[in-house]
Design a protein that fits this description.
alpha/beta; Metallo-beta-lactamase, Chain A; 18% helix; six-stranded mixed sheet; 5 helices; binds zinc ion; 25% strand
C-alpha cells in the first residue's frame, strides 16, 4: 500500500460495488465496507476468483467499519480482505468468526445491535440479522447451522435510508422474518448469483438466485436494490443478465440498481 494512495472520494448516501460481495456504503459520514475481498484473480482452495477488485484496499484505507457476514469462505473474506478487516477501527462479524479472527473483531449473534456515533452528530445502529447459507433442509454443521454460521446486517439511523445487507442467505423465509422484525427497509445489498458448490446440498444454491433476489426485494419493499456476489468467482451460476430478467419478470426493474463495479449508486430513489 503506497502511503500516498489517495482515498476513494466520499459519496455520502451512496454505495459502490467493488466486486464479488464487496460493497462500500458511505452513510452519515461513515464509510462502511461489507465482506472485503481485494485479492487478484486466482485459486482459493476449492474456489476460483476470476475478476479483481474495481477499487483497491489502499483506496479504502479510511474505512470506519468493516462488516463480515462470515469469515469461513474466501469469496466473502479473502487474504487481503482479512488483513483489511483486521486493520479497520471496527470489525463486526459472527460470534464464531470473531473468535477465529481474534481481536479487534466483535461478534454479533442474530438481532444483536452495535451503535456508533456518526461524524454528522447522529447515530448509526447496526443490527445483525439471520442468514441461512443454503437450503432450509440442508445438512447442519456441529453448531446447527446450514453450511456455516452467517449473518446479514441492517444499518439504520435518523435521516438515513435503512439498508439491509443480506450476507450469504438463501432463505426467503429468513428475509420475511427480517422484515417482520425490523419493519421498513429502504435499500438492499443482496448476495445473489446462486452460488452452488459441487457435491454440497445436491448443488442447490447457497445464496439467493435471481428469482429469489427479486422476491426478497418485493418482500422487503425496498425501493433501491443492489445485487452483489454474482460475478468474480467461478461458482456463481447466475449473473447480471439473469438478475435483470428476474426483476423484469416480477415487474420490479424500477427498483433494481446495477452498474459497472466501481460506480456509485444512490441508496435513496
Ligand atoms: Zn459463504
Amino acid at each position: 500500500m503506497a502511503p500516498s494512495s489517495p482515498h476513494l472520494p466520499r459519496h455520502d448516501g451512496s454505495a459502490l460495488v467493488v466486486g464479488g460481495p464487496t460493497t462500500v456504503l458511505d452513510l452519515g459520514g461513515l464509510r462502511i465496507v461489507s465482506d472485503p475481498t481485494f485479492d487478484a484473480p486466482g485459486p482459493h482452495g476449492y474456489l476460483t476468483k476470476t475478476i479483481g477488485p474495481a477499487v483497491t484496499d489502499a483506496q479504502l484505507a479510511d474505512t470506519d467499519v468493516v462488516l463480515v457476514s462470515h469469515d469461513n469462505h474466501a469469496d466473502n473474506l479473502d487474504d487481503s480482505g482479512r488483513a483489511f478487516a483486521l486493520a479497520a477501527p471496527l470489525l463486526l462479524t459472527t460470534t464464531s468468526g470473531a473468535e477465529r479472527l481474534g481481536a479487534p473483531a466483535t461478534g454479533l449473534a442474530a438481532w444483536d445491535t452495535h451503535t456508533l456515533t456518526r461524524p454528522d452528530g447522529g447515530d448509526l445502529t447496526i443490527t445483525a440479522v439471520p442468514a441461512m447459507h443454503g437450503p432450509e433442509d440442508g445438512e447442519r454443521d456441529a453448531e446447527g447451522e446450514v453450511n456455516c454460521q452467517a449473518i446479514g446486517f441492517v444499518l439504520a439511523g435518523d435521516g438515513l435510508p435503512t439498508v439491509y445487507i443480506s450476507g450469504d442467505n438463501a432463505s426467503i423465509r429468513t428475509v420475511a422474518e427480517i422484515t417482520r422484525r425490523i419493519g421498513r427497509i429502504d435499500a438492499t445489498v443482496l448476495h445473489a448469483g446462486a452460488a452452488r458448490i459441487p457435491g454440497k446440498f445436491r448443488e442447490r444454491p447457497v445464496s439467493l438466485d435471481s428469482v429469489r433476489a427479486a422476491s426478497a426485494a418485493a418482500i422487503l419493499g425496498a425501493s433501491v436494490n443492489l445485487p452483489v456476489h454474482y460475478d468474480g468467482w467461478a461458482h456463481f451460476t447466475e449473473g447480471r443478465d439473469a438478475i435483470k430478467h428476474a426483476f423484469d419478470d416480477a415487474g420490479l426493474t424500477s427498483v433494481l440498481r446495477v452498474a459497472d463495479h466501481g460506480t456509485w449508486l444512490p441508496l435513496k430513489p
